[in-house]
Amino acid sequence: MINSRLAVAIHILTLIASRKDQVEMTSEFIAGSVNTNPVVIRRIIGMLRKADILKTQAGVAGAVLARNPDQITLLDVYRAVEPRDELFSIHEDPNPNCPVGKRIQGSLDHIFHHAQSMMESELSKKTIKDILTSMFA
């Protein structure tokens, strides 16, 4: 199963963007919406801050968007929270003496690369504003 970090990051950003008053929300408040531990939220907020998607201030609880919601693509979010370059990976060290083991990586590389490219293309077409619009239309 692919982890839910991307979905949680999008949830965080959408929640923050939904607040017209730009009140800074604490990780505890956000964790209540996501239904997870505040530590998870702080970790993801840190990733989003490092990618210049969110702003935080030392000594002040909460986070605010660093850009307008229509300027934050889901691809930006994906790249911020996913540590690997590739969504799919092939198991390490298949048996080179097996007819399948010695050929599996070459057979799957193209398929996995194409799937990754298609996913990234779709994510680049949608923004946090699109998510807000679809939720509150």
Automatic annotation (TrEMBL):
InterPro entries: Tscrpt_reg_Rrf2, WH-like_DNA-bd_sf, WH_DNA-bd_sf
Source organism phylogeny: Bacteria, Bacillati, Bacillota, Bacilli, Bacillales
PANTHER family reported for this sequence: HTH-TYPE TRANSCRIPTIONAL REGULATOR YWGB-RELATED, WINGED HELIX-TURN-HELIX TRANSCRIPTIONAL REGULATOR, RRF2 FAMILY
Gene3D superfamilies xref list: Winged helix-like DNA-binding domain superfamily/Winged helix DNA-binding domain (1.10.10.10)
Protein known as: Rrf2 family transcriptional regulator
